[in-house]
Amino acid sequence: MVSAECFALRGDIVQSADVQTLACVEDGYAVCEKGRSLGVFPQLPGHLEQVEVRDFRGHLVIPGLVDLHTHAPQFACRGMGMDLELLDWLDAYTFPEEARYLDLDYAARAYRSFADEMVKGATTRALVFATVHLPATLLLMDLLEQSGLVTMVGKVNMDRNAPDALREPSAQASLDATQEWLASVRERAYSRTFPILTPRFVPSCSDGLLAGLSALQRESALPVQSHLSENRSEVAWVRRLRPDAAGYAEAYLNSGLLGGPCCPTVMAHCVHSDPREASLLLERGVWVAHCPVSNTCLSSGVAPVRAFLDKGLRIGLGTDVAGGYSPSILHAVAEAVKASKLRWRLEDEALAPLTLAEAFCLATRGGGSFFGRAGAFDEGFDFDAVVLRDDPPPCGEKIGLEARLERLVYTGADSLAVDKYVAGRRIPLPQAAADAS
Ligand code: GUN
Ligand code: FE
Fold it and tell me: Whose CA is nearest to atom 9 of ligand 1?
């Protein structure tokens, strides 16, 4: 007897077998039962013959994509100030924009457009920075809960080196506001929207604030997200601010906010992490959110992802809106490959460029692992799936599944998402995309 909560997506299925290898099944079935994957089958096995089949023959079915680092309040100012580097860009564009989220009317409009965009594309899970503002952060969480996506959202902590409008008056005030936020989140009892502790980065957080957040982390067991070694001037500034620490990562480590078995942590960027810092991230089990679009746009550099992969680091992809102008993780896949080619050619020919299969794995299994069992159709994983419309090329030649995925990645496939599931739940896509199916 087949459960009513069981269905199959029929189509051309592409996922990562491992970091180097894509597993492709042409005209296969990805089967979901009670929100979990039962696996991918070339033909439906006998005991599943009765399941409802949703027919996407000729189109690609991929695991949902994971955005391991984005800033919701910067969505409205994408593509601005891209001639600046990080610290000047924060002062001139980002902080003034984030200050507007004190105004709940503005926040409601801007966060609605962010949530709508997240629903439209191929992303199914995300780690999201909000701002310091408590009511606006809750509003964002309400909207993301309604979206059906699974997200972790952070009220940002910052008690120094920020304009008055954004700087929390003291470490204690920032900690109190965080506790208040967490209490409100508990009351709301979201089912797919989770809080994550979010010290913005070392320059924005006093030692006392980081120590207080570490104590809160130990008692709450919440995960942590922040920024690390993104830009040269920022790295030099952190050295001046934290003479106690041997390097940037050690500043978080000394403050008790760098991974370990009870503190799942994502650090965004790591462009300037040297082998010593990378070893520390490995030892602490920290996830790196690689943000290639932002790293290029803010002239931060190109993260040594090949070296990180060779070391065995955990890595996912982030859009880092609005350092990155694009909210699309498929776009980030293409940019990760392109940036790695330039690094290889111009900086270090010992570090081979990423392949499409590797970058796709970061976007799926890599980021998905931060959420537990997500990012692939392995049996028992959460069933996150996206159907990408794939019209045959005009030349009519039949090309393989890997080549079809590559073509869609480079030609902007997010607009082609025609069906989407998060933990087995269908996410209604806006009409325009649905009409195209
Ligand atoms: N470092 C601290 N804050 C930010 C931010 O908003 N964006 C990026 N790219 N880096 C940061
Ligand atoms: Fe960021």
Answer: 323
